[in-house]
Design goal:
single chain; 343 residues; alpha+beta; 60s Ribosomal Protein L30, Chain: A; Phosphoribosyl-aminoimidazole Synthetase, Chain A, domain 2; 2 domains; seven-stranded mixed β-sheet; six-stranded mixed β-sheet; globular
Length: 343
């Protein structure tokens, strides 16, 4: 069997929907601690705990089921995705712990080892040690990392600090969920598969550099809830509105073709159900375009709001790090707590 056939979903597409997650957490009250600067109640990418005046620890855990059949690539993608949460806070990673669940009676030892080697390769590239972890016998393959990082308390980039007039910039094109759906349906060609691997293993380390830039006001990464789902969190958390220009949003070319032909994930409709009340779109917009805007991204790009005066500086930083399709897709403003999509 292929690795993806052991799992009911793949990558960040297997995340619990935002609407259901909100219900699950509704009665779970945060435990008060004045040093906890960012907790789960703020729907941000990672927790932040202040140690002293100069240092705060940033902690996240991220894991999922296979999005590809190559075990080494699966490990790379899962690790890249986990580090993204740290970078989305403007922080730098310090060390990682492995989270491993595998059907040990079904997968060969060499396959499981290859998954861990893929994760290790990303950690080695970043110079971040894997200090340990935890493993269980699981009916579905699961892999990811706990990552601990650090940031100066005054350099934290939350998803709740967008300012009216900010430009909205995205670092990677959308469509990874569509490509993963095509892979499971055996309709993904080799070139599109290679593009999928390239995008999902491209590390969002630019976020640590953006953490040092004044005028970068809010930041998150686009993962399982899709562009509209994660932008909704920025809009509601910052108490602002947003306007997105559809023609400026970058998509993976083959993903557009596949989505037009109906190859999409079930998570797209769940994501749309969770954010539709906050979105206004134009009458001639195609349904497949909404599918792409809510497409769950595994190891997706950073989503940044920044003052217009530093827009070109931010884009240049992305390009220096190899994010050639980073671009401005809209602005913060408009109707309060709404996302308006224009042609």
């Amino acid at each position: 069997m292929k690795l993806t056939e052991y799992a009911h979903g793949g990558g960040c597409g297997c995340k619990i929907s935002p609407k259901l997650l909100k219900e699950i957490l509704a009665d779970l009250q945060p435990i008060a601690d004045s040093n906890l600067l960012v907790g789960f109640d703020q729907s941000d990418d990672a927790a932040v705990y202040q140690i002293d005046d100069d240092t705060a620890l940033v902690a996240t855990t991220d894991f999922f089921t296979p999005i590809v059949d190559d075990p080494f690539a699966f490990g790379q993608i899962a690790a890249t995705n986990a580090f993204s949460d740290i970078y989305a806070m403007g922080a730098k990673p310090l060390f990682a712990l492995s989270v491993v669940g595998m059907p040990i009676d079904k997968l060969p030892v060499k396959t499981i080892s290859a998954v861990l080697q893929g994760g290790r390769a990303i950690c080695e590239e970043l110079g971040v040690p894997i200090a340990g972890g935890h493993s269980i016998d699981s009916p579905e393959p699961i892999y990811g990392l706990v990552v601990i990082g650090k940031v100066a308390p005054d350099k934290i980039k939350r998803n709740t600090d967008a300012q009216i007039g900010d430009s909205i910039i995205i670092g990677k094109p959308l469509g990874i969920g569509v490509l993963s759906a095509a892979l499971k349906k055996n309709v993904l060609n080799d070139s599109s598969y290679q593009e999928m691997i390239s995008l999902t293993t491209q590390i969002n380390s630019t976020g640590a550099r953006l953490g040092e830039v004044a005028g970068v006001n809010a930041m998150t990464d686009v993962t399982g809830f899709g562009l509209l789902g994660h932008l909704k969190e920025i809009v509601l958390g910052s108490n602002v509105g947003a306007e997105i220009k559809l023609s400026e949003v970058p998509f993976v070319d083959s993903a557009q073709r596949l989505a037009r032909d109906g190859v999409v994930t079930g998570a797209s409709s769940r994501n749309w159900s969770s954010c539709s009340e906050y979105v206004q779109y134009f009458d001639s917009m195609d349904g497949f375009e909404l599918d792409l805007l809510t497409d769950p991204q595994t190891s997706g790009g950073l989503l940044v709001t920044c003052s217009t005066s530093i827009e070109e500086t931010v884009l240049e930083m992305f390009r220096e790090d190899g994010f050639t399709r980073a671009c401005r897709i809209g602005s913060i403003g408009g109707m309060l707590n709404k996302i308006r999509i224009i042609p």
